[in-house]
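A sample copied in:

***
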Amino acid sequence: MEFYLTFFECLLATIAILVVVIYYKKNSTDSRYPPGPKSVPLLGNVLQIGSDPLRVFQKWADEYGPIYSIRMGTQNTIILSDPKLVKELFSHTNSTGRPANPITHYIGGGNGVATRKAHNGNLNVALC
């Protein structure tokens, strides 16, 4: 018996292999980022956050420490849970002015340090 694959079957197999490779690549230990929870391809950790993000972030801080990384959709996000670390980070001008992440803005309601806009244009003065 000969084995034939249709174009559709080959396409499905290729997509399945790509999803598995991307999943393992994204969830492998990457030394550029702090440790964090495992994520889902394309969605990241969004589904794990749920309706009470502060509780989930605190749980992750207890598990991974004051600096950990998560994925918001396809974007890596580093979370700081220690106010001293936040102050240190925002005291350097090269760490400010990063582009906003719409998912982070939605979850935090625009009230996070990274998503809040300063009235006078200089949020760093208020933090430091």
Summary: The beta strands are 67-72, 75-80. The CA atoms of residues 99 and 114 lie 9 Å apart. The chain is about 45% helix and 10% strand. Residues 33-127 form one domain.
